[in-house]
């Protein structure tokens, strides 16, 4: 089969790899669609993503959907429910490692487990192969059946939408509240659409790119702020979601939050020391909360994808598997107008 494999910084290849066998306790999925994520781009451009350093060739991709191709002989039918060969599914990419566990008060927050293997990640040795391949074996508990009416193309959004939903959950109940989303890359845009689906009263989206702001409007933003044109952020929003990961943006976003409001940081900040204006966190008593991946919001994302809000405007480009190099170049270049770039995997 073919797969998208990164060998080092600047070295991305579409190459033949052995077809996987289906272990007795696993399920083989024929992948149909995959979304290119910022971490995939980082492995390609830098040979690393955060603290995870690429040491061996790695199949990328953790935003994937496809159909069940084979079920291992030892898989308990009760673990599959109504999933059978041919069922359309997406995959929860996380595997908890070790028995260290979490304190009792954090037991439900499994995204904070001390060690987690994740599709397409070099955090462990050997690395955890991703899903940018024609076939991938997974555990039955990782499968999520697609609701009726949700295509595998749309379901490639479930993983990043789960990230956006988790960020909104970290803010508390957003129903009837005003919201600022700063940074309209794919996660920020999906946060806009999810906030609309979750009943936010007023949503403002801010970005440097007019094209990204047009997408934010299409996805449900009530107002947009073009930072590149010098437009000012709104004042006294109840909740802000910082999705740009730009330290310079923090001071302005904090100042936009009302006294006693909440700021959720979902954009990945640089790993080293950063300089940011944080004083208003104290004087305005802003709750500054981090947001990391998700617990099981990927399941909530599938339900949301089946609902009345249209999330597909975030998909701006699609490429065949053989065009992975071009897909990554487009995804990495915002001047192309790209947001979520999809690969057709089979």
From TrEMBL:
Species of the source: Ornithinicoccus hortensis
Domain annotation Alcohol dehydrogenase-like C-terminal: ranges: 186-305
Cofactor: Zn(2+)
Database matches in CDD domains: idonate-5-DH (cd08232)
Family (UniProt): Belongs to the zinc-containing alcohol dehydrogenase family.
PANTHER family xref list: SORBITOL DEHYDROGENASE
Gene3D superfamilies tied to this protein: Medium-chain alcohol dehydrogenases, catalytic domain, NAD(P)-binding Rossmann-like Domain
Name of the molecule in the record: L-idonate 5-dehydrogenase
Entry GO MF terms: oxidoreductase activity; zinc ion binding
InterPro entries xrefs: ADH-like_C, ADH-like_N, ADH_Zn_CS, GroES-like_sf, NAD(P)-bd_dom_sf
Domain Alcohol dehydrogenase-like N-terminal: from-to ranges: 24-148
Keywords, comma-separated and alphabetical: Metal-binding, Oxidoreductase, Zinc
